[in-house]
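We treat protein structure as text, and this decision shapes the records that our systems exchange. Below, we set out a record of this kind in full and without editing:

***
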Amino acid sequence: MDCPSEEQMIRMKLANLENIHSLDFDIPERKLVVYHNGQYEPILQQLDMLKFDTSLVESVTLANPEVTNGKNELERKLLWQVLGINFFFFVLEMLTGFLSKSMGLVADSLDMLADSFVYGLALLAVGGSLAFKKNIAKTAGIFQFVLALLGFAEVIRRFAGFESVPSFQLMIVVSLLALAGNWLSLYLLQKSKSKDAHMQAGMIFTSNDIMVNMGVMVAGGLVYLTHSVYPDLVIGTIIFVIVVRGAVKIFKLA
């Protein structure tokens, strides 16, 4: 498990098992501690269905387990802040992407939207029923997948046509702003010093976004040097592939 959507997949897969008290995720180490009653085999059977190459490390009996559930209010507040930042830059990059005719910015905006979906899923699903969680995942996955397909269609149209060269100035400036937004998100998440799974996963997701922002800036520089539309289309295609993969993961939650 290396992203928030995979963690959500695991949580939903195990949601029907009534003998589970809580789940403790360690995203960097790719480990999950399950506090439960009874045998562990049914839990492994459910996890094997996700095809995450699950293996049992150890099974121990605890006399007085200290199990905590949920997030504290500080972490919840920080997640809302990060969600707001991501959604703001989704709108900004989508608008400036069309104004500058840059598919790189449009694709990056959808990547921001994917992050917003993940954070929204984590927050909206708290306390909700399993059916409610699955409906959220299904709606988010379908919407993100449709947007990505429309983006691919536009990339193909621009590859086949004679589009004007995108504005490299807007590409670089807006990507710098998005980079600052992601750095702020990463700072807020690290500031909490939380070992909570959602916070750890959010840090990984945001770190990946920073690399995407830098890729769009590099594409903007290549557009300036080559006076060609192709660097922008190539980086847009790469990001759209990332968005589709995220959409498929989210859709699997349903």
User: Anything to note?
Assistant: The chain has eight helices and two strands. The first helix runs from residue 4 to 13. Residues 73-252 form one domain. The CA atoms of residues 215 and 228 lie 16 Å apart.
